[in-house]
Amino acid sequence: xxxxxxxxxxxxxxxxxxxxxxxxxxxxxxxxxxxxxxxxxxxxxxxxxxxxxxxxxxxxxxxxxxxxxxxxxxxxxxxxxxxxxxxxxxxxxxxxxxxxxxxxxxxxxxxxxxxxxxxxxxxxxxxxxxxxxxxxxxxxxxxxxxxxxxxxxx
Length: 154
Prior knowledge:
- There is one protein chain.
- The chain has one domain (40-151).
- With 154 residues, it is mainly alpha-helical.
- The longest helix has 57 residues, at 2-58.
- It has one helix at 2-58, and strands at residues 101-104, 110-114, 144-146.
- The relative contact order is 0.14.
- This is Type II secretory pathway pseudopilin PulG.
- It comes from Azotobacter chroococcum.
C-alpha cells in the first residue's frame, strides 16, 4: 500500500510538470499572436498618419506645408472651413505610448511618424503596398510612416 502512494505522487508530479509545459507553450503562442496583432495595428495606424499628413499638405492654402504638431491634423484651422485630417491621435500599439518619433521635413515640420520601440519585428516581408521598403528592417523604429517616401531617413 505504501508503494502505491509513492507511485500516485510521482504520477501527480508528472501531470503538474506536463501541464506547466503546456501552459508555457500556450503563453508563447499567445505572446506571438499578440505581437503580430500589434504589428498589424502599427501598420494601420502608421498608414493613417501618413495619409493625414499627405492630406494636410495637399489642402494647404498658398504655400504647401506639413503641420508643426500632430494635433494640427485633428483640426486644421488654416482655412475658413475647418478640416479634420485625422479622427484622433493614436497611441503607438507597440509601446502603448502616445509619444511617436517624428520625421521632420527640411523646414522642421512633421512629415512622418515612427514607433520608438527598439524591439525586433516578427514581420519581415509581404508588407502592404506603399510600405514594401520595410522588408528586412530589424527594429520597429525603422518603420517610418511618411507622407512622401523621400522623407524616409536612413
